[in-house]
């Protein structure tokens, strides 16, 4: 008896084929999810210690205002002339042993690892018990060493520089020891780097009014004018010049009234 003459046998064959293809589809979906999850997940780096979390934990600034970690990492090497000294430490940011970022910089995976600013960038500083003592980090005190205006100026200017290009950035990333696979290289060359350049250019244009402000130096910040422009798209050119000066000392978090 042929298969066409045996409905039960034919039905069993179709059922087996259906199970086989469902299994194949399931395996493909699982593999795709495993590969894609690191790219599509929104995962901050978490810290069990409350002090570490204050210094390095995310407050959610990375999606809108963050910079891809590896681009951020190599900017000082590509643009040393835009810094007062060596690296981000020359702007007064505090590095602790074993950390890949200074205090006040969080990390979150959004398609790629991104860094953003958290509360500690303004509220963590150092003191010395004697002139010869090693500085001690005190969280929640004013960031007395940080030149935040200098950092904002740096990241607002670099995207307009012709050195901000895929060849230069990828070469420096490799020089610093990160080995991208071919997919990552393509992703950075044609997506991550161009989008970051465009975003930093847009940010630089919105913050162009800062060029008309005096340098505030370490320990001070314009508390609200940048937010007016970045968050509310306030037309800063319509403000009275006196209103563009909003510098204030970083406050401590304690003794707030």
Report on the architecture of this protein.
With 257 residues, this protein is α+β, with helices and mostly antiparallel strands. It folds into two domains: 1-40; 43-249, no CATH class. Helix content is 42%, strand content 12%. A four-stranded antiparallel sheet has the order 1-3-4-2. A two-stranded antiparallel ribbon has the order 5-6. Helix 6 packs across helix 7. The radius of gyration is 25 Å and the shape is elongated.
Task: List its traits.
8 strands, 257 residues, 2 domains, 8 helices, two-stranded antiparallel ribbon, alpha+beta, single chain
Please write out the topology.
Blueprint: H1 7-40, E1 42-44, H2 50-56, H3 62-65, E2 67-68, H4 69-78, E3 105-110, E4 112-117, E5 124-127, E6 136-139, H5 148-157, H6 166-175, H7 182-206, E7 220-222, H8 225-232, E8 247-249
Antiparallel strand pairs: 1-3, 2-4, 3-4, 5-6, 7-8
